[in-house]
């Protein structure tokens, strides 16, 4: 009987089992990584729920703007900012009586660059001082204040948020 020469890769049974286990681990790791990366800021905050330490009671006027039947959303037609300064002062307000916490993000409309993000602000309180991620040069910038909401109950489930258009006037 003539001996045949085998060409290519020959895998023994133990090698196939090891490769199958490695493949299974890679798939499981990919699924877990995908679940972790797909988590959104709009997801219920759960154990990461942090009230903004700089939020305080608000006695001033509510900024003009629309409101819905259940969640009042203040408007911010224009925000004045000093050129070259990272510290700004605007009352980002969660109006009294709202059934939810607010989280604010100040975002440049053209680039989607996030300049500021607050922690959660209770109803009737405002964050009056913010530190931007960078100073802006003189000019007028179209921006959006993204408002994410979470219910007041223990589960802090997401509610309807809002995107409030504004103009940053940097002088």
What structural keywords apply?
171 residues; alpha+beta; five-stranded mixed β-sheet; 8 strands; elongated
Can you describe this structure?
This protein has 171 residues and is α+β, with helices and mostly antiparallel strands. It contains 1 helix and 8 strands. The chain has one helix at 13-37; strands at residues 55-57, 78-81, 87-94, 100-108, 114-117, 125-131, 139-151, 158-170. A 5-stranded mixed β-sheet has the order 2-8-7-4-5, with no helix packed on it. Strands 1-6-3 form a 3-stranded antiparallel β-sheet, with no helix packed on it. The N and C termini lie far apart (94 Å). Residues 40-45 have low confidence and may be disordered.
Please outline what is shown here.
The protein has 171 residues and is α+β, with helices and mostly antiparallel strands. It is built from one helix and eight strands; from the N terminus they run αββββββββ.
End-to-end CA span? 94 Å
Shape: elongated
Number of strands: 8
SSE arrangement, N to C: HEEEEEEEE
Strand content: 35-45%
Strand-pairing-aware structural class: alpha+beta
Radius of gyration: 26 Å
* Main β sheet profile: 5 strands, mixed
Helical content class: 10-25%
- Strand numbers in spatial order across the main sheet: 2-8-7-4-5
Uncertain segments: 40-45
């Amino acid at each position: 009987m003539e001996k045949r020469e085998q060409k290519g890769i020959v895998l023994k049974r133990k090698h196939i089992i090891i490769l199958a286990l490695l493949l299974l681990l890679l798939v499981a790791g990919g699924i877990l990584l995908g679940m972790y990366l797909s988590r959104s800021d709009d997801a219920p905050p759960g154990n990461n729920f942090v009230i903004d330490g700089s939020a305080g009671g608000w006695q001033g006027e509510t900024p003009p703007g629309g409101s819905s039947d259940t969640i009042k959303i203040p408007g911010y037609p224009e925000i004045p900012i000093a050129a070259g300064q990272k510290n700004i002062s605007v009352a980002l307000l969660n109006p009294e009586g709202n059934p939810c916490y607010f989280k604010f993000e100040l975002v440049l409309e053209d680039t989607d660059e996030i300049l500021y993000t607050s922690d959660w602000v209770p109803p009737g309180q405002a964050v009056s001082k913010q530190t931007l991620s960078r100073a802006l040069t003189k000019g007028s910038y179209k921006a959006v204040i993204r408002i994410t909401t979470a219910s007041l109950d223990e589960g802090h489930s997401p509610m309807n948020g809002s995107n409030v258009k504004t103009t940053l006037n940097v002088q």
